[in-house]
Specification:
This protein is 39% helix and 15% strand. The protein contains 12 helices and 12 strands. It is globular. The longest helix has 33 residues. The strands form 2 sheets. The chain has a 7-stranded mixed β-sheet with strand order 1-7-6-5-4-2-3, sandwiched between helices. The protein has a 5-stranded mixed β-sheet with strand order 8-9-12-11-10, covered by helices on one side. 45% of the residues are buried.
């Protein structure tokens, strides 16, 4: 079946519950057992307590596992939790963890904060390292953490090459795949052990929930699930329902995000007041070949470089009226934010200019262009005044 057919139907069987096309939203903590023997040995019932899941959470877990080609999927209350839980599952005191330097900033903060306090050694590597990551592996390297494309600056990686070297060194690989979703990139098919998503973004799609998922191979699923239960994290059924509903239209929404973002990226690329556009699907992008070899599509998030510093970026952003100033992405509305790369150690980006990250929503592109034109006009007026 094609991706949109999978999204529309998924693994849930309507005839399992009187023919209703959507799974029920089950609110539950306590589950009753038929006998003390069943309670003691967990017999006869597929569920034992609300924290371990309900038919509602299982419906979403199964849908995501099918999309990912995974053995099992867990749900957690946020995208960041989807990053921290697998790291905690496979790392302990004395272990070594390799992290791509273009990683999402809160991931870096967790690694530099909580993991280092736990006694985990953290090292960052260039996103273009490929098979060369074997040179950074140590006997105690337990995890290699990837993100493709890189957060904010969109560097691409040779995922299969990194994963092959990591596996040869005995490490588990994890990849934050929020940008592409499993519709445009399936990490497990490229050798990744654990595929991470902020379901807050495109699966939810409407800026009204927070949730994350981790999809695992057969070799890693049990340890991941065990850690999830030890920490005591799962997703609330009403939020799960919203993601299940969002999945039905994610394919068609992504097509619109993709088309609009590419049109804007090409338009920005032609402007003299833009120093650089970083969109993996543009042929001019330095990692376009890596993108084209591994990904089947792109989403609505990319960056462009404005000359000048944060003051100039603020002038541009503050002139926008339709495009909001806010974090997150993947929703129906367009957003912009000035990128801070000061925490990078390897993939530092250009010395001059400030990246503006655009989340392109579902608005008409002509209206977005007009709003961006207002930002450029404000910059030009400021430059003229200064002159």
């Amino acid at each position: 079946m094609g991706p949109n057919t999978l999204l529309a139907h998924g693994p849930y069987d309507p005839h399992s519950l009187h023919g209703f096309v959507n799974p029920p939203v089950i609110h539950a903590s306590t589950v009753l057992f038929e006998s003390t023997d069943a309670m003691r040995h967990r017999k006869s019932l597929p569920y034992t307590y609300g924290l371990r899941g309900t038919p509602t959470t299982k419906a979403l877990e199964d849908a995501l596992s099918e999309l990912e080609g995974a053995d099992e999927t867990i749900l957690v209350p946020s995208g960041l939790a989807a990053i921290t839980v697998p790291l905690l599952a496979f790392l302990g005191a004395g272990d070594h963890c390799l992290v791509v330097d273009s990683v999402y900033t809160p991931t870096r903060q967790f690694c530099n904060g909580t993991l280092r306090r736990m006694g985990v050694e953290i090292a960052y590597f260039d996103p273009h390292i490929g098979a060369g990551i074997a040179d950074l592996m140590k006997p105690n390297t337990k995890v290699v953490f990837l993100e493709a494309p890189g957060s904010n600056t969109f560097e691409m990686m040779d995922v299969a090459a990194v994963c092959a070297a990591a596996r040869a060194g005995g490490a588990v690989t994890m990849l934050d795949n929020t940008w592409a979703t499993p519709l445009y990139f399936r990490p497990i098919a490229h050798g990744v052990d654990l595929s991470i998503h902020a379901l807050t973004k495109y699966p939810g799609g409407h800026s009204d929930l927070m949730m994350g998922s981790v999809s695992a191979t057969a070799a890693t699923a049990a340890q991941l699930r065990e850690t999830q239960m030890q920490i005591g994290l799962n997703a609330a059924p009403d939020d799960v329902y919203l993601v299940l509903r969002g999945l039905k239209t994610m394919g068609v929404r992504l097509e619109r995000h993709q088309a609009s973002a590419l049109e804007l990226a090409r338009w920005l690329e032609r402007r003299e007041d833009v120093a650089e556009v970083r969109h993996p699907a543009l042929p001019s992008f330095f990692d376009h070949a890596l993108y084209a070899r591994q990904f089947s599509g792109c989403s609505g998030l990319f960056s462009f470089l404005l000359p000048g510093g944060f003051k100039q970026a603020a002038t541009f952003l503050d002139a926008l009226e339709l495009i909001g100033l806010g974090y997150s992405w993947g929703g129906h509305e367009s957003l912009a934010v000035a990128v801070d790369l000061s925490d990078r150690t390897v993939a530092k980006g250009p010395k001059d200019g400030t990246f503006i990250r655009l989340q392109v929503g579902l608005e008409d592109v002509a209206d977005l262009k007009a709003d961006l034109e207002a930002g450029f006009a404000a910059l030009a007026a400021t430059a003229g005044t200064a002159g």
